[in-house]
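Hi U.,

Before I forget, here's the chain from the pilot set. I'm dumping it here mostly so it's searchable later in email.
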Amino acid sequence: MDFAINHICTPKKSLEEFFAMTKALGCSKVEIRNDIPDVVGTRTPEEVKAAAEAAGVTILSINALYPFNVWSGDLPARAEAMADYAAACGAMALVMCPLNDGTEVSFDDLVASLKAMKPILDARGLTGLVEPLGFPVSSMRKKSVAIEAIKAAGGEGTYKLMHDTFHHHLAGETEFFPEWTGLVHISGVVDPDVVVDDMLDANRVLVDGADRLENIPQIKALLAAGYDGPFSFEPFAEEVHALADGQAALAESIGFIKASL
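Structure:
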């Protein structure tokens, strides 16, 4: 298992503390963010690159360009700025999330957005990690649709899928696409009372034995099908962020997952 750590696991830690924790966990791959915490908006890319090199970690991605499938307004400028930042800080990819407010976005608009984003990524040597969101209000819920759109945009060499175990479960998807998958996000839901259609980011905790999202079967299926990339922890629940010892909690979840495989 190749584990990575997303800064959302411990958003109260500084970048340097987060990188040090990742190494202490025996991991060397990280994801930084432009929301919680907003690394992109508060640190220069040169600072981020220097900190990553000093800690010996690789920056897999920046989360996230949103809503990538509505190519209008300030999105093109934000996309270029984020791609510039990613290239300058040494990140390998940008996570790209679709509109998630109940508004429908046509397949043609999705394809047009991927076509427009492709030269921005290609010029900087970046991968676009396209992440379907499984929420009922999402404008792109399924990975199969994302793959169809990537093909229609001629983006096979530029784009990969983000397989998120939470969104895979919410979308009711059963098919796995290991050859298309560039990164996997893992998180669990343990609240026994929330129904699947009502699950939100706030419900996402670290994976343990009470998980309702079938993380372990999903991980097993991906590995058996040939996926050999990283699995990155992405819990959004405030109860995780508030832990006094996030490192210990992550170590426990890593141990549980390894033992379960």
